[in-house]
Amino acid sequence: MTTTQQGVEASGQAQTPVLHLVTCGSVDDGKSTLIGRLLAETDSVPIDQLEYARRTRRGGSTIPVGEIDFSLLTDGLEAEREQGITIDVAYRHMNLPNGRRVLIADAPGHEQYTRNMAVAASNGDVAVLLVDAARGVRPQTHRHLTVCALMGVTTVIVAVNKMDLVGYDQSVFEDLLASVRQTADRLQVGDISAIPLSAAAGDNVTAGSSRMPWYQGPTLLQALADWEPAAAAQDAPLRFPVQYVVRAAGNFRGYAGTVVSGEVTTGQSIVIADSGRTARVERIVSFDEDLPRAVTGQAVTLTLDHEVDVTRGDVICASGAAAVQPADRFAADLVWLAEEALAHGRSYLLVSGSRSVPATVTSVRHRLDVVSGHEHAARLLDMNDVGRVEIATDRPLPMDPYSVCRDTGGFLLVDRVTADTVAAGLTRHAMRRSFNVVPHDYEVNHQARTRLMGHAAKVAWLTGLPGSGKSTIADAAVRRLHAMGVHTYVLDGDNVRTGLNKDLGFTPEDRAENVRRVAEVARLMRDAGLVVLVALVSPHAADRRAAKALFGEGEFLEVFVDTPVEVCAERDPKGLYAKAAAGNLPNMTGRGQSYEVPEQADLVLSGTDDLDAVVERLIATVLAE
Amino acid sequence: MSARTVPYSAVLDELEAEAIHIYRETAAAFRNPVLLYSIGKDSSVLLHLALKAFAPAGLPFPVMHIDTTWKFREMIEFRDRRVRELGLDLRIATNAEAVAQGVTPFTHGTHEYTRIMKTVALREGIDRYGFDAAIGGARRDEERSRAKERVFSLREPGHRWEPRKQRPEFWRTANTTLAEGQSMRVFPLSNWTELDIWRYIEREQIQIPDLYFARPRPVVRRDGVLIMVDDDRFPLRDGEQPAMTSVRFRTLGCYPLTGAVQSTADTLADLIAEMEASNVSERAGRLIDGEGGGSMEAKKAEGYF
Question: What is the pLDDT of residues B87-129, one digit of tens each?
């Protein structure tokens, strides 16, 4: 019984026994038929499914019963069959004559599905990009090329389909190829080729064509069979993210994971990227036997020659210049996946390999037009948008540029409440600031100032609808506190917007930034030793959570000023409700935009109770130790 | 340019490494995972891969069998022997209430029987032990509707499978975060084919129940399907008489619902040769899938594996 060594040749290069293929193009381009034919003609489909494709016909089909409708072989979910379109990425396998396995990730081609395309391309070695010869190059062709290049697919085969409909005309093919090549050159796709074919008639799919004598190149199947992985993988730097710590009898302590880049050998000196600690690899353990080395793609367990603190999420690298330097600020490209737009300043969970840490998108630099390749100024990203952002993480992470390693350069952003994956990220570079900005520890600190002030510094964050009474309560409370000798300051939403935040509007993303800045200022004031009252609508729970995350236990009180919206509208001290009623204030909280009621506020004050009593409760809570 | 030949074993190596990676991620990321063990060939491979993933330590999670009480007797014997040999922590989930009410494959339609005895029992088992991730042996090649199944497949509260909530899967990076009430089904064999399973069993010399090999067994032919009469609970119709016939099984489940294949393949090599020659998808022999190509999807939405 031998083990994982068989995937490695004597030369040391991995064979890449599985070719990850991404297919892009729409149903209208004849993609289902093309894939169906490839599968059928390489014996990759069971006989009973072929029989099904001979007997079954869907409405509008012109293929005679008895012949195979290849498009039926690649059908997926019931819903899709009813609508006749593909709604998600489907995975299928195919066997090449040379024994290599092809795992096909089939992405739908409709405009709104950039995200599906990105998923399919994320593991891709080769992309087959379908273009309809009769319809020519369309915007989606550029989109597919852009997404492939973005996700790191370096080999693209353009399948120019339906050549039968253009009379197998060479000039149609040449014109089309020239146009695609232009885009590919701009995107620096390493290896692009094109094949004229007809999926329906069978030309140049698995068998050659006598109808296009002007074409001397390979069939699609031959092109896939000829593919070889780039030789560069050998010199790639070692990256071994630790997934799991194995403890067993005899004090065994091993670090289980997959070599995602480079190779590891016994005796090699390694460094734990996070801590900078070094050690040597003692054993490379597998179920069957110890191995002298492990290459990219192998799942093994490493033991080290001495006790070093290693936990899940740490990345083991070869010691030396090629080791990754942890950083906490990155420039990255995001593919936005969620229906809710990106808001900067909001805290997400960043998942990289086996590690997740809180992270904030601190700014959006630009949005990429995936058709033209132009970069546009943007403040947010919507679903299916691709854009360059800056990200700050709560702790330094060992992230590589995506071009160095997909596994340690790619990451997910996860919504902290719904747990949905909202974005896929591709690290471009760590930002110098994270190395150059080293906070100085001042001797006179927060604690020293607290002693001098004689009271604890705190932030009470009053949130509630416009007109709920936040400013009124803050005003009364701060007068009382001042009289008691407590050092205070009030950060009032409207007042801050006349200065520090006068560049911000009232869209959800501007509100997020408004909250972020106010929270940062409140933190500085807390450091200065003050009791800070914040009076800010702050309608979004996620923004308030991000604000709270800046403070230590007990330093931040979320105070919900709970006043029925009818009462607020009745009071309407600033005339906002009247304006909203007249249709002049589309982003008004409580009207055009919703207010997310705090679920676990530290204090709930009723805005309709007696003001003195309300202020009394607030002060008691603020001054409580 | 002529490409080098890739040996089958190299393909198996890559599939193995992928499965091990998924196992380790599952064991580390979830609070209380469980391996769903259904005794068949896929489960045997799944178990073998789990042993590999955590060696030299043992399995860091229990295994659970959904026992409908209508499994082949040999399956149960095999299960109990493997549990003893490997020292597994076995949990058994049975819909005891339905058994008491007399639900059998003969009293209820196949679909309803499966829902009651498998789907409901699975959900109850998961809930009873508080498992937040259940590892299963489903493969994408089994059925067309599975081509879009995720490796980490999310279940909403009530074990509901919601197509729109399924998470996009990038690289080897999995979002294993769960919101309140959610759980995960994990499929390490997603990218394996049936032939891969058999080739791997052959290479790794993995133990499987003898039912996969052709032996003379007492069978009746009913509605064109060969059914083995495994015990005296099988109600014979007028004129039905079990006849000893050389048969094997391609998949294992509840014996009254599992069609046998007439065959003389009594070794692994014969069996693989026979399968390569016939090239019929394996679910063709399973009665529970017989209700149209989309029926698996309908069952999945209800919480069937």
Answer: 999 999 999 999 999 888 888 888 888 899 999 999 999 999 9
Neighbours of B180 (CB within 10 A): 8
Q: Parallel, antiparallel, or unpaired: how do β-strands A240-248 and A315-318 relate?
A: antiparallel
Q: Which amino acid is at A523?
A: R
> Which residues, listed in sequence order, are joined to residue A304 by a DSSP beta bridge?
A281
A2 within domain boundaries: no
- Put simply, whether B182 touches A (Cβ < 8 Å) is yes
Q: Identify the burial level of B277 via C-beta atoms within 10 angstroms of its C-beta, where 0-12 means exposed, 13-18 middle and 19 or more buried.
A: exposed
Q: How far is residue A355 CA from its own chain's centroid?
A: 14
The whole-angstrom distance between A102's CA and the closest CA on chain B is 10
Domain that holds residue A535: 446-623
Per-residue pLDDT tens over the stretch A275-302: 889 999 999 999 889 999 999 999 999 9
Complex ipTM = 0.89
> The CATH number of the domain where A251 resides is what?
2.40.30.10
Report which of B11, B88, B13 is spatially closest to residue B43, judged by C-alpha positions. B88
Q: Which domains, ranges and CATH numbers included, belong to chain B? A: 8-200+294-302 (3.40.50.620), 209-289 (no CATH)
| A101 in contact with chain B, both atoms CB, cutoff 8 A | yes
Cβ contact (<8 Å) for A419 and B177?
A: yes
Tell me which of A171, A201, A231 is where a domain ends.
Answer: A231
Chain centroid to CA A167: 44
Higher pLDDT, A230 or A266: A266
Verify whether the Cβ–Cβ distance B191 to A91 is below 8 Å.
yes
Select from B52, B149, B172, B202 the residue whose CB has the most chain A CBs within 10 Å, as the one to mutate to test that interface: B172
Question: Lowest-confidence range among A577-581, B69-73, B127-131, B256-260?
Answer: A577-581
Considering the domain architecture, whether residues A203 and A251 belong to the same structural domain is answered as no
A35 and A136, same domain (yes or no):
yes
- Burial pattern A404-429, b for ≥16 Cβ within 10 A else e, equals bbbbbbbbbbbbbeebbbbbbbbbbe
| Domain match, A157 and A224 both | yes
Same domain, A43 and A176: yes
List of chain B residues whose C-beta atoms are within 8 Å of the C-beta of residue A123: 170-171
Local structure of B224: helix, strand or coil: coil
Phi-psi region of B188 (alpha: psi -120 to 50; beta: other; left: phi over 0): alpha
Task: For residue A346, tell me if it sits in a domain.
Answer: yes
d(CA A542, CA A576): 24
- A-B CB pairs within 8 A amount to 208
Per-residue pLDDT at A330 exceeds 80: yes
The yes-or-no answer on residue A403 being catalytic is no
Residues from chain B contacting residue A287 (CB–CB below 8 Å): 51-52, 55
A430 and A450, same structural domain?
no
CA A9 to chain CA centroid, Å, is 35
Coil, strand or helix at A489: strand
A335 shares its domain with A382: yes
* Listed residues A434, A466, A499: the one ending a domain: A434
Contact between A291 and A299 under an 8 Å Cβ cutoff? The reply is no
Judged by CB atoms closer than 8 Å, whether chains meet at A49 and B193 is answered as no
Please pick, among A171, A286, A538, A594, the residue that the annotation labels catalytic. A538
* Position A415 in a domain: yes
Bond prior to A241 in cis (omega within 30° of 0): no
Q: Is residue A440 part of a domain?
A: no
Long-range CB contacts (< 8 A, 24+ apart) of B125-130? B125/B64, B125/B66, B125/B91, B125/B93, B126/B34, B126/B159, B126/B183, B128/B93, B129/B32, B129/B34, B129/B62, B129/B64, B129/B91, B130/B32
Largest CA distance in chain B: 68
When divided into structural domains, chain A yields a total of 4
Whole-angstrom Cα distance, residue B88 to residue B69? 21
Q: The CATH number of the domain where A104 resides is what? A: 3.40.50.300
